[in-house]
Every structure is written in structure tokens, then in C-alpha cells.
Backbone:
């Protein structure tokens, strides 16, 4: 087989996008951060709260550009850094639970994976977006480690946060994502679980690369 899709799902700050980017670069595949797409719609919603979701999604064009990591454009506005801020993070799980938002993004994501060659990370990729992906990974880490990682991420981006607040925020977001009605976060039956607690980025990347090689 010459082309495969790789689905990486898991809870907040487990390391999905860091690893997915590296795996995609090593295998010359396209990386797609679906969380960024839900964050982009959350940005649009916070600026246009009066517009119902079914109308809002029809006004949006989301583009992911593989440049300097990955840039996120919403109707040609670069919102890459803006969508990592706290107000977006606090509201994204609510927006992602809306049926119209999920239908809109799942269709877009399925189009992006049709020709294969994609590493896509999110919450419902292995279960809903690409249930036939050749490799599915369910990535987890302890909530303490995830809060520490996000604390460092936020520091490097100049976003104010505290360890205790991050433990609470991450736990609440995971709960909302795991209990929503439509495609909640859950491990696909055929996904390989990887607990990244205490593991280096290189170790996790190599593990997934060797799983991918078996399927290429
Ligand atoms: N073993 C590891 N695997 C993945 N990320 C790690 C690991 N160790 C430390 N990190 C750091 O943890 C953070 C993970 O954040 P991110 O990749 O955005 O997670 P997610 O996409 O799951 O929300 C990054 O800052 C990354 O550098
Ligand atoms: N495939 C996806 C990806 C993200 N999401 C939602 O989008 C939010 C933000 O995703 P993200 O991957 O940017 O989150 P972080 O783990 O990087 O903080 C998640 O908490 C989910 O509510 C989703 O519902 N389905």
C-alpha cells in the first residue's frame, strides 16, 4: 500500500499535535489539526453570538496552511495565535457540541482525507471522520503531566495560566468532550493506546513511525 491515513485522538494536551506534526513531516504526509478548526468556529461565534450556528458555518471559510508549523485562516484572516487564548479554550467544547458545527467540519475533514496521505488529530477522527484509517492512535497522559505541558506552552505564547487552573480546565473540557451526544471522545476499538506520561517526544514519534511503517 502506498498511501495511508493516520488518525490521532485523545484528551486535551496529550501531545497529539506535537507528535502528529513530526510524524507527518517524517513520512511526507499532510498534517491536519482539527482542534484548530473547532477553535476557529469558536472565534467566529464569540464575535457573532446572535447568529445561529447553522447560518454561521455557511459564512465561514477555514484554511489550514502548512507554513511556520500550521497557520489557521478564517475568511483569509490569520487567527493562528488568537485561537490559543483563554476565551476560545473556555468556549470551544460548547461550540464543538453543536450538531451543525460538527456536520460542517466532519464533511470538510472527510474531503481532506479522501486521497489519503493525511495525519489528522482531534477527538473523533478514528471513530467518525476516518473510521477506515490504516492507523489509529489513542494518545493519553496523566492530567498532571498534561497541565504541566500546557503551562509551558502557555508561557511560551505569553498566555497567563496557573497549574491548578489548568488541571480544572483540562478536566472539565475532557468531561464535556467525553460526554457530549454527538461523536464524543472515545478510543476507537481498533486504535493503539499510547500513554505518553514520562515519555520523550522522540520516543512517541518513533513508536508511531514504526506502527506506520508496518502499514505502508
Ligand atoms: N512525550 C511527549 N509527547 C508529546 N508532547 C510532549 C511530550 N513531552 C512533552 N510534550 C509537550 O507537551 C505539549 C503537548 O501539546 P500539544 O501537542 O498541543 O497537545 P494536544 O495536541 O494533545 O493538545 C507540547 O508543548 C509538547 O512539547
Ligand atoms: N476532532 C475534534 C477536535 C477538537 N474538538 C473540540 O475542540 C477542542 C479543542 O481541541 P484542541 O485539539 O485544539 O485542544 P487542545 O488539546 O490542543 O487544547 C476540544 O476540546 C474539543 O471540544 C472536537 O470536538 N473534535
Residues:
Amino acid at each position: 500500500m502506498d498511501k495511508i491515513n493516520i488518525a490521532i485522538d485523545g484528551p486535551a494536551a496529550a501531545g497529539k499535535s506535537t507528535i502528529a506534526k513530526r510524524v507527518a513531516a517524517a513520512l511526507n504526509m499532510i498534517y491536519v489539526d482539527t482542534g484548530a478548526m473547532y477553535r476557529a468556529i469558536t472565534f467566529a461565534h464569540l464575535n457573532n453570538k446572535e447568529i445561529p450556528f447553522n447560518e454561521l458555518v455557511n459564512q465561514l471559510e477555514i484554511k489550514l496552511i502548512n507554513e511556520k508549523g500550521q497557520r489557521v485562516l478564517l475568511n483569509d484572516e490569520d487567527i493562528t495565535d488568537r485561537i490559543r487564548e483563554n476565551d476560545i479554550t473556555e468556549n470551544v467544547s460548547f461550540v464543538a457540541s453543536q450538531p451543525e458545527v460538527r456536520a460542517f467540519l466532519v464533511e470538510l475533514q472527510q474531503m481532506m482525507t479522501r486521497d489519503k496521505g493525511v495525519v489528522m488529530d482531534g477527538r473523533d477522527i478514528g471513530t467518525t471522520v476516518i473510521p477506515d484509517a490504516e492507523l489509529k492512535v489513542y494518545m493519553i497522559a496523566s492530567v498532571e503531566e498534561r497541565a504541566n505541558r500546557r503551562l509551558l506552552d502557555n508561557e511560551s505564547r505569553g498566555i497567563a495560566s496557573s497549574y491548578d487552573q489548568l488541571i480544572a480546565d483540562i478536566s472539565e473540557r475532557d468531561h464535556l468532550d467525553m460526554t457530549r451526544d454527538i461523536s464524543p471522545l472515545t478510543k476507537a476499538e481498533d486504535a493503539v493506546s499510547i500513554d505518553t506520561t514520562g515519555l520523550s517526544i522522540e520516543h512517541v514519534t518513533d513508536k508511531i513511525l514504526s506502527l506506520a511503517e508496518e502499514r505502508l
The chain has a mean pLDDT of 96. The chain has one domain: 6-205. The first strand starts at residue 6 and ends at 9.
